[in-house]
Amino acid sequence: MSNSASSDCLFCRIVAGDIPANRVYEDEFCIGFPDINPQAPTHLLIIPKQHIASTAKSDAKDAALLGSLMSAAAEIARSENLSKGYRIVVNTGDDGGQTVNHLHLHLLGGRHMTWPPG
Fold first, then answer.
1. Where are the domains of the chain?
2. Exposure string (b/e) for 45-78, b if CB count within 10 Å is 16 or more?
3. Which class is 10-109 in CATH?
4. pTM of whole model > 0.85?
5. Element (H or E) spanning 87, and its range?
6. pLDDT by residue (tens digit) across 21-73?
7. Which of 40, 67, 42 is nearest to 55 (CA)?
8. Is 51 part of the annotated catalytic residue set?
9. Residue 75, H or E segment
């Protein structure tokens, strides 16, 4: 699969502004917005502006972008006052629970997390 934007990709359409999202974070590489089906008091998605289907479709040339997603997650967690802790989840593929084929991080916080997660 190509790393170019796809008109049928939900998250590419959000990045393009075709679908509105409450952007709580944005930089040159990614955006962050609330998940429509929150699993914690704070549940935000962080998506790259560049289309990458999943971590399985990423490679070494995407290393800087992947790092920027983690950095954005940390910055968002600080702005959301998640000082007691939070979880970052990346679902990959059908068995991993990925439902949108555009790489994204889930930032969950605001409650105690248990292990194993699922």
1. 10-109
2. bbbbbbbbbbbebbeeebeebbebbeebbeebbe
3. alpha beta
4. yes
5. strand 86-89
6. 999 999 999 999 999 999 999 999 999 999 999 999 999 999 999 999 999 99
7. 67
8. no
9. helix 63-79
